[in-house]
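This section describes the prediction task in plain terms. A model, or a person checking by hand, is given the sequence of a single protein chain and must write out its three-dimensional structure as a string of tokens. No templates, partner chains or ligands are provided. The sample shown here is typical of the held-out split.
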Amino acid sequence: MKLGMFMMPLHPPEKSRTQGFDEDIEVVVAAEEMGFSEVWVGQHHTLAWEPLPSNDIFIASVIPRTSKIRLGPGVTIMPQHHPANVAVRLAMLDHLSRGRLLCGFGQGGVPTDWELFDLPDGKTQGLMTVEAIDMVLKLWQATAPFDFQGQYYRIRIQNPIPELGMGELLRPYQQPHPPIAMSMMKGQSMAATMSGERGYIPLSTNLVPVSTVCEHWQTYCAGAAAAGRPTPDRAIWRISRSIYVGESNEEAWTHCLNGTFGRALEYLITILRQAKSLHLVKHDLSIPDDEVTPAYMMKHLCVIGDRESVTAQLRELYDTTGGFGTLLMIAHDWDDKEKWLRSMQRLAQEVVPALP
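The expected answer:
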């Protein structure tokens, strides 16, 4: 099993944005030093708890500070960007990183972000996302003149001047393009089906119970089969979990319940409740909404404890899902930097090596 990281990021609103960005950079550098294989970086425009609107700029800032770890937007929210801009910016990141770029694409789910960009309903945004991804892939291979006409975008260069290089788009360092991933929330999500059909990397969210995570793989494989693709290799599957490895079980639970870990879960519960999506986190749909608390989330969705306990929980996750290739640790706020660095170190050097 490989170990990676998924960074939303999560910081309490009162923390200085500058300090938060500095810590985000530092945790990526530390992850590489500890042997993490990859980091995915989130993107939101109007969330005080997740204040990173430009994950491509963030990735550009950590490329020269690292040398091995792979870096990817997790995700580029396609309806909030023009596909041509996405294509050339990601291509440039791929060159700057000498091929260390991973590409995560998705729709986004924050109503105030939709309002900010004057976007239509969620279903329409889903269709926009698919079309935008297709446009990016076309642009990475296109030679002008071209005219790509879609339902939501028309992208064209009709009057190139080849002898001047006018009309030539930057292509990625990796050919035909960097590895592409899509994040999955619902068990039978359109993203899971589309990822399977196209052979994209499946990224399972940390905000659903293991039963839903298992459904992600079933939906992904069904998409692959429907498209006539071979049976997918589980090694490409990424599963995200909030993880804290403490000195003891008691210390780990006390730290998480009373720190920004617990506050972040309270924030996520509130967001999901407002979006009428709180049912997604429940391991049993009969559970009342008011019983979904940070402690509930920690018990059913997180991996918390001492080294032996975390190892056992992750082995159970591996066995229940049938196996996966990369564990993505959610990056939580450094309310106690030394404790979080020790947790990362234990996870990377003691826990993951003991897993399949």
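For orientation: Residues 122-139 form the longest helix (18 residues).
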